[in-house]
């Protein structure tokens, strides 16, 4: 399958985050960051046409000194988004970082709904690298380098005290009842707090950990180590994890290997693996190598049919979510590795963004999947039969 795709160059706009607000509207977060580059930090909303052309609909310029939006979660059902934007350095120094922002997209304009600070240490290097919404859109996970908090959405009211991790946090994933936090060292599986009809923490006590009128501490259920199929070959870091959108018994994880150092040997190339986990047993069911480059971002399509990844070799790949078979590859999608991928709600479009100031719009054909692989198998079988027939004639 060769999907049609179109790159769009956006002058002076390095891209770090993205998400779809509707089947035909997506938001990009980017800019020059907190450094004095002269490149402004912004949120931009674009509409995309059937021919993959894009039109700028709205642009929201952030305050000078604030950081670029480094992560975004969108809710197409409500036309809202949450993103991570560090406050200006003088506010960071005071521990007053309003790093999480929620916006509504109404009448083709972005309007601020509220802010919430989770990164209050004053560490200028910390930023909101994780912003993920729960499937029902009522909870939001907000993660920095080593801390993560779950809040209600869109009110941004804390539902539980922050989780602290010894290893770096790179991703998180919601099922209906659990939260999986991806750290470089392991996957941490937590039970989710109950939420009442107003989006506030339930007042039901849980093992005595809830203070009167306060949020409930998240209960750690499992700590998942690297799969044996990978760990016995090389050390590795977890990079991302996603539940199957329609089956929470399936979790996908991405691991990047760490090359060993030796004075006498050339370092082995980094490799990336995808694993399928059975969340009832927390055993791996499939392990597949994706290539000799580290994966930089990974997502699942809303319809649960496809998995998309980007790697440090500037490649974008599309996989069948059931078999993990490759369906399509764009070898040089960007000049720099992609920092963000986003499917639209109908799983018919995929966009990628990169600091190279390019957003690429990719069509996902309706015929992609098992039918395309059936054709390939028929062709291979036909060639095999022809070769066997030629060999038989030579023997006669």
TrEMBL record:
GO biological process, one term: endoplasmic reticulum to Golgi vesicle-mediated transport
Signal peptide extent: none
InterPro entries for this protein: Sec12-like, WD40/YVTN_repeat-like_dom_sf, WD40_repeat_dom_sf, WD40_rpt
Positions annotated as WD repeat: 331-364
Keywords from the UniProt entry: Endoplasmic reticulum, ER-Golgi transport, Membrane, Protein transport, Repeat, Transmembrane, Transmembrane helix, Transport, WD repeat
One GO molecular-function entry: guanyl-nucleotide exchange factor activity
Any matching Pfam family: WD40
PROSITE patterns in alphabetical order: WD_REPEATS_2 (PS50082), WD_REPEATS_REGION (PS50294)
Main location: endoplasmic reticulum
This protein's record includes keyword Transmembrane helix: yes
Membrane topology type: Single-pass type II membrane protein
Top-level division of the source organism's lineage: Eukaryota
Subcellular localization(s) per the UniProt record: Endoplasmic reticulum membrane
Gene Ontology CC: endoplasmic reticulum membrane
TM annotation in the entry: 373-392
Name of the molecule in the record: WD-REPEATS-REGION domain-containing protein
Lineage, opening ranks: Eukaryota, Fungi, Dikarya, Basidiomycota, Agaricomycotina
């Amino acid at each position: 399958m060769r999907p049609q795709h179109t790159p769009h160059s956006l002058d002076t706009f390095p891209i770090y985050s993205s998400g779809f607000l509707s089947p035909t509207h997506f938001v990009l977060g980017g800019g020059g960051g907190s450094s004095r580059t002269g490149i402004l930090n912004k949120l931009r909303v674009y509409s995309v046409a059937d021919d993959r052309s894009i039109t700028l609909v709205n642009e929201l310029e952030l305050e000078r000194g604030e950081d670029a939006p480094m992560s975004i979660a969108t809710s197409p059902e409500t036309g809202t988004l949450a993103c991570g934007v560090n406050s200006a350095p003088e506010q960071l120094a005071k521990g007053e970082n309003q790093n999480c922002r929620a916006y509504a997209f109404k009448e083709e304009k972005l309007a601020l709904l509220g802010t919430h600070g989770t990164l209050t240490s004053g560490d200028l290097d910390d930023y909101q690298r994780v912003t993920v919404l729960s499937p029902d859109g009522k909870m939001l996970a907000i993660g920095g380098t080593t801390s993560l908090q779950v809040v209600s959405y869109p009110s941004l009211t804390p539902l539980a005290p922050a989780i602290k991790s010894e290893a770096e946090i790179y991703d998180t994933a919601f099922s209906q009842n659990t939260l999986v936090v991806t750290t470089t060292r392991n996957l941490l599986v937590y039970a989710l707090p109950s939420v009442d009809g107003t989006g506030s923490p339930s007042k039901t006590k849980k093992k005595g950990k809830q203070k009167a009128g306060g949020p409930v501490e998240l209960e750690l259920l499992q700590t998942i180590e690297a799969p044996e199929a990978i760990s016995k070959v090389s050390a590795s870091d977890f990079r991302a994890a996603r539940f199957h959108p329609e089956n929470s018994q399936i979790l996908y994880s991405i691991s990047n290997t760490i090359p060993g150092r030796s004075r006498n040997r050339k370092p082995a190339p980094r490799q990336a693996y995808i694993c399928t986990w059975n969340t009832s047993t927390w055993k791996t069911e499939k392990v597949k190598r994706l290539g000799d480059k580290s994966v930089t971002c990974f997502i699942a399509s809303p319809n649960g049919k496809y998995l998309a990844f980007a790697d440090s070799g500037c490649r974008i790949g599309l996989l069948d979510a059931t078999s993990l078979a490759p369906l399509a590859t764009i070898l040089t999608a960007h000049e720099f590795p992609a920092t963000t991928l986003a499917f639209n709600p109908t799983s018919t479009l995929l966009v990628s963004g990169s600091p190279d100031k390019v957003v690429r719009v990719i069509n996902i054909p309706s015929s992609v999947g098992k039918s395309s692989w059936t054709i390939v198998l028929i062709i291979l079988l036909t060639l095999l039969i022809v070769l066997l027939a030629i060999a038989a004639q030579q023997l006669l």
